[in-house]
Design goal:
2 copies of one chain form a homodimer.
Chain A (H helix, E strand, L loop, with lengths): L11 E7 L28 H9 L8 E6 L3 H7 L8 E4 L4 H16 L4 E6 L3 E2 L2 H18 L2 E6 L10 E4 L8 E8 L4 H10 L2 E11 H11 L1 H7 L10 H8 L8 H6 L5 E6 L3 E2 L4 H7 L8 E2 L4 E4 L5 E3 L5 E5 L4 E6 L2 E6 L9 H8 L1
Helix pairs in contact in A: 3-6, 6-7
């Protein structure tokens, strides 16, 4: 990025985590094509394609890795043909973020022991790409000078019980990058309200930067079992990698990096990001990213006509024309052969629908 | 029909009226494919195909006519390839049933002045084909012996304001074929309730039988303008027919046979039909013809799953799979590129939707 004051160091790597299954958006995202590979917002590009294009402005293709389920290798290739084949890390089973990050860190450390590693989700929405990339570069520079584990925090815009919250040390409040005092995963509503009102807490955006040696050291300290499964391996970056991974993955702990390491480490920092962020994790989040009419109806298409209706969310194929008349509080989603209509107060149920259909067959 | 006691007289003709536009079922029926050409009940056959197959058990193809909008000539041919091309009567514009019946009667009288003519709608649902055909044959025999205009009546099964009601003369009550005392088109609710409770009234099913000379005579008496447009024509059943029809049709009165002739004539009889009838004129009627689950949900497909929902009606393509969760009182219909979701209390609005979309373009 020519406008950036901070050039990208040569041994910096970016890992795109694409292991999600996105069942909250069924049928728009589904087991064949999870959310990260979908274009829920009808931008013309899937989330992962957008993520790739964004970070490829600073990372060359050979230093971008995608880690995803083995069954998504093909769709990843199709959506990011620029990526070298060896840069897709295939997980034989889902094992949460600590394992997935350890796998990537071990692979990268075998290329360069002094490498820095940026870890980003594949399915988030970013409003200001330039601000985001500058923050990444600032974060890389910080961990290279300072060490430690850096996570990105977002100033909360509402009371939200589905995110992790980060509290910075009082003495460091207001600094762009500050030492972390506490982590709290998915608080209950009352606590989330306190966090929101105090102004001292940030949402954990799931964006991490560290030197690979530091994350491996912290994994050794806090998740020794995971560390030891990778210790002394000679298979990564060789033809034996897939077999090795398939052998050990089932034994790896099913724990998030937040719970497994960040909450325990005393070396955690947070960069307060200000680039416009949404994890697009719920239909509510989808709604805030789309235009709403005067009755709070949201659709992803100009071909949806609302009459005498309010608080509806609709996501249908672009070529579809819909008339929604005299109804309230519905989520309406359609893709391929699937149609889903759900009352908004039942949104939490949507993630079970695909499974229910499977068991029905 | 070999089981019938009454053989079909050689100069009997059947006219299938297929001029409707079926906009109450949009988008399942639409301007390209109105209700009569649709298979709303997912039986595997359109209404008009079912109608044709039913009456072709007693009428040979050359004595079956379909009268429909000129734009539906192709779809009629495709759905009833057995029909001779000349047996499709093309209306250049919609002109209600009096004109449409006069056109067919004039055509048939030029083939045989002593002919008898059965007029049936193309888009009704009949439960008992044998009983229906026997009633047609009985009706034909009656008008050939007795003359007059015979209409078919159905014993009302609910208070209904959308139909015409027929009252028979007290002295003839209980007879299979009885002289008519009064006609009342679409009464208000209070009157419909009285009709229903009295037990003296029948619904007008829109099925008529008469000798062509009688209907032409009655048209001359009650709709002289219409009669005179066809009087002395030499074009019907010649290559000039289409041009002739296109020239006069705009001048023909836009009136139903019920209002224009039957209500005024003193020669009207009613045959009390008992063959299981529905005009499938509303989604409510659709619902009564389909299986309902324990929460009064109706769908045309086994691939629709209702959870925690009641009183919904859904009609979607066969290959579609739908999950309907936590909603009540919806009509959900989908076809081709169109999706419609409407609260049941707004059902009357549906007929305007296609027009609204047209004006929007």
């Amino acid at each position: 990025m020519t406008t950036s004051p901070t050039p990208l160091p040569a041994d910096s790597y970016c890992v795109i985590m694409a292991g999600g299954i996105g069942n909250r958006f069924w049928p728009v995202s589904n087991a064949q094509c999870p959310k990260q590979f979908s274009d829920i917002l009808h931008t013309g590009k899937s989330f992962i394609r957008q993520t790739y294009e964004r970070i490829s402005r600073i990372f060359p293709d050979e230093r971008i890795f995608v880690i995803t389920g083995a069954e998504y290798e093909d769709i990843t290739h199709r959506q990011i043909p620029e990526l070298p084949c060896g840069n897709i890390l295939k997980e034989p089973i889902r094992r949460n973020t600590a394992t997935c990050i350890m796998y990537a860190a071990e692979k990268i450390t075998k290329i360069s022991e002094t490498a820095t590693m940026v870890v980003i989700p594949s399915d988030h929405f970013i409003t200001n790409d330039n601000a985001y990339l500058e923050d990444l570069l600032d974060g890389i520079e910080f961990v290279r000078r300072n060490g430690g584990l850096l996570t990105f925090g977002i100033t909360p815009s509402r009371i939200e019980t589905q995110y992790g919250y980060i509290q910075v040390r009082a003495a460091e409040a207001g600094k762009k990058i500050a030492a972390v005092k506490t982590f709290t995963e998915k608080p209950d509503y009352e606590l989330a309200q306190k966090f929101y009102e105090s102004g001292d807490f940030l949402w954990n955006a799931g964006i991490f930067i560290w030197q690979v040696k530091d994350i491996i050291l912290e994994t050794r300290k806090h998740l020794y079992d995971l560390y030891s499964l990778f210790e002394n391996n000679t298979s990564l970056n060789t033809p034996e990698e897939e077999e090795f991974i398939n052998t050990i993955y089932g034994q790896c702990p099913n724990v998030s990096i937040d719970v497994g390491i960040l909450e325990k480490s005393n070396q955690v920092y947070v960069l307060q990001g200000n680039f416009g962020w949404s994890d697009v994790g719920t239909w509510h989040a989808f709604q805030t990213l789309c235009k709403q009419d005067e009755n709070n109806n949201t659709s992803n298409s100009s071909q949806v006509i609302f009459h005498n209706s309010r608080d509806c969310i609709i996501n249908i194929p672009e070529e579809k024309i819909a008339i929604i008349y005299g109804v309230n509080d519905l989520i309406i989603a359609e893709k391929d052969n699937y149609l889903m209509i759900c009352h908004r107060k039942e949104e939490e149920e949507i993630r079970n629908f695909e499974k229910q259909l499977k068991f029905r067959k």
